[in-house]
Queue: 2 jobs
Job 1
Amino acid sequence: MPKVKAYYGDTAKDQGIGLHIDPQADLQELLDAWQPLCDQTAFTKQYASNSDQSCRACTHNCCDTAYVIPDIIAFKKMAAHLNFSPAELVDTYFQPEKRNIGLLRMLPNPCVFLKEKLCSIYPVRSLICRFYLCAPMQGSTEQLIYLLSSTGMAATHVYARQNGILEPPGGAISSMDRLFLELFDQYCADPLLEHFLKAQDYCDIPLKPFMDSSGFINK
Ligand code: SF4
Ligand code: SF4
């Protein structure tokens, strides 16, 4: 019996993508339940170019404009997958001007890993890439996945600073960059960060503390 169920609610009270989560579940179990939504055709994806609404066949690709900062688990997996050290990964695939102001943003417009309209690192893509769907989401679900993604991104910045890959924040920044830096400052002070910093993989990260902190409500 899966500990996490993802579903699409279409009643006035239960509208959009929702989750039912056993408090014993871990993040990998949430990702396993979420993945089928990407190619599910039973609900409308607002920007899908294809009539069956699957991400796989979509050519209006959200990856063309995405602002992607990987969570720490994906960051380490990407380095291992590409056979790079973390520093080589950053040197090769991240925006130097953002790195200079203390941010780890992957090269964008389109994403550096988008090849022929498909993600070339799909199995190791980051939480923000896995969770993004251009479809309505229930508030409680959105809060939970936002907290998980943001905490994971903040952990990448702590890890990169501790390992001399990233300078502390500084210099002229745009409002979007400021938003991310302020967000990461906030999450770096949160005890939830430790769950990402000490985890080897998503299965090591319990969902319960994130459910409690985000005010997640099981339906
Ligand atoms: S989430 Fe992205 S890939 Fe999926 S349908 Fe929407 S725009 Fe296309
Ligand atoms: S890593 Fe993959 S899924 Fe994420 S933005 Fe890049 S191409 Fe898209």
Job 2
Amino acid sequence: MARVLAISNQKGGVAKTTTCLSLGASLAAAGQQVLVVDLDSQANLTMAAGFDPDQLDETIVDLLMAEIEELPYDLDMILCTTTVEGLQLLPADVRLAGLERRLYEYPGYEYLLKKILHKKNPDYDMILLDCPPSLSALTLMALSTADEVLIPAQCEYYAAKGLERLLEIVEAVREKTNPALSAAILPTMYDQRNRICRMVLNQLQQGFPEMVLDHLIGIDTKLREAPALGEPITVYAPNTRAAEQYNALAAEILENHKNTRKVV
Ligand SMILES: Nc1ncnc2c1ncn2[C@@H]1O[C@H](COP(=O)(O)OP(=O)(O)OP(=O)(O)O)[C@@H](O)[C@H]1O
Ligand SMILES: [Mg+2]
């Protein structure tokens, strides 16, 4: 059975999508069969993996609608094979925004993705869900599907505040739909030379000692360039520090399940 990781933070631009693709590629390079799932109507993950959402016949939107309407569907037809061996993508497109607004109308919508992935689960070792920057229906659906939530936190001043709100939601999801959900924090865009960055990292480690992962991701302009080429950093610039850091993070996640400990 695949381990499912939701990559979530309601704060925008904290490296959710970058982490989903880069970590997915690093896990695949480590021999894992990996599926990355785009759950954002911006479709940034789809584009960063090298696909044009407007050119795709069907996406996750069609799967969710079929599941709601109890119509048959073929998930394999919608999966995109990336240039990285062992890494597949379930793409999204802009129609996801419209569907998301209506999701609340369907009782049990939180379980739709779990049902969709259920049949494919044995095919993968890891499934990573790229969540939108909100605490909306799609995020609740992702958190209800996942074994663990990985929270990228940008090392800047308000990081800890936003995390408290997200962790309340995680607790609510545990109570309602997913009691076993665990959580871990990944500091991102860390700049060793910046005093605020060092201070915020310290705050995160002090404030959430059980949850902050051992590895962090430093600031690296190569990570900004990679999406334009539709390649993960480990392919675009494999010798950069960021690529090494994502490889190290993949090793940590694989080796140490206890790093995604439950918040108490
Ligand atoms: N470690 C890093 N160093 C420098 N730039 C980075 C780093 N990680 C991500 N970025 C850049 O920061 C921007 C935001 O990253 P990304 O799109 O992954 O964030 P996000 O949390 O998915 O955003 P959104 O909330 O809009 O979905 C992108 O331009 C990305 O290339
Ligand atoms: Mg994103």
